[in-house]
Amino acid sequence: MRLFKGISSIWIIVLVSCQSNDTLTGNFACCYNGLYGELYFKADSMFLVTGMETFSGWNKFTIKNDTIYHLTFTIPKPTKAKINFIDDNRFELKYAEDSTAMIFSRLQEPTNLERNINLYLKNFRKRRDALDCGY
């Protein structure tokens, strides 16, 4: 009985330690397959801007263990991706449906997304062109 309690305690510790404490906040950019995009995270919401200057609007997201659940432009139900936090400034999203894997890097400069859309777009274009994703 004592051995059973000991093993049970170890399993509880292992399961609790596997839960992710990582959170997403701030602004990130990605080049993928010739396309540029920026993601903005605030509290439990995310905002996507594509290289073609299409805006998603704020959508809720959740992270459970190693998976992020969020809405996309074209799919009305939540999409899921495995999330791998590489370091404080980068993370990878892997989508099983189409084998897509994207690495996002933190943007160091402020973006002004919510304050001044014209200034944001001017700086967005500079960031997009500087990365030269093939757009």
Automatic annotation (TrEMBL):
Domain of life: Bacteria
Protein name: DUF4369 domain-containing protein
